Amino acid sequence: MTAISAGIAAVFLLLFVVSRRQDARRFRNGVFLLMAVGFGAVALSVAVVAAFPPLVFVFVLAAVLVPVLVLALAVFAIANGVTMLRSEGRSLGNLLSLLAGLALIGVPFLAVVLVEAGRRSSLPVAQDVTLGLGFVIVFVAVYAALTFGAFTLWSLVYARPRVREQTDALIVLGSGLIRGEVPPLLRSRLDRALAIYRSTPEGVRRPVLVPSGGQGSDEPRPEGEAMAEYLIAQGADPADVLPETESRSTRENLVLSGRVLADAGRTGSTLVVTNNYHVLRAALLARDTGSSADVVGSPTAAYYVPSAFLREWVAVMVEHKWLNVLLIAPFVVLLASLIVYSRL
What we know:
With 344 residues, the protein is an alpha/beta fold. The protein contains eleven helices and four strands; from the N terminus they run αααααβαβααβαβαα. The protein has two domains: 74-158 and 303-344, no CATH class; 169-300, 3-Layer(aba) Sandwich (Rossmann fold), CATH 3.40.50. A four-stranded parallel β-sheet has the order 2-1-3-4.
């Protein structure tokens, strides 16, 4: 068991290293890393128990405590969701943490109810349907948990502080203004870009700053305009600030900012600045648009992080919905085939 788990972990680690070197801006990097860590942990646990048999009770206790930990996580998510609603207002994005907490409690309960209903039913068809639904729900929940784990893990690793030398341009992604002014969340992005801008060595051409963001329906002016104003007020040379004020999404931020840079003749290395929770999705979109830009993150208020990561993960899952359907469909087809075969 130890050798098999260690071998699988080594394979996934190798896949991760190769994929990471090819392009760090890939979701699959997180999947490979998560699988390597998971199988590595299994191999280490089995080896430790083999060397010190009494420690098996520690792992048994840990397994018993899993439901308690899940419940604690659900309570935390629900509490965080309430905090988000109070601090940020009512919206679907701000509800995600609350909904995730309810799902952590409701999904296992629903699966148990369906399986038990199927077991007690005297109708073969009802048994098949309820049992099948129960297993599908469990599989989809596990799939969601694994993809969210991979997304979060690689987001945290990818977002670690790093800056290319002699960056030629800094694109700062916009977010909502409050009464036409830069709020703390957006300010953290701008301050991160300013720190990189100011760190340019003496004698090296400073990067241009491209604050990017259009005007939302609830905003009195474009985000890029307010961001540019803030950058200049904080000491950036007005000649180095090239605002982009037409974009309405992260994809448009990247595409239209690229055009601004092309018009300015800045074709060197580009760094995109956003909040840490948004780094991986921005990197995926940069890669998808054909940009070679890397992405760095800025700090985010602690209470905002859980819902923000959930929102970004949901967005990535929706953007790749057909791939997710193709990955889940074989299991559903296999389960249905097994049920039909068992009745023949």
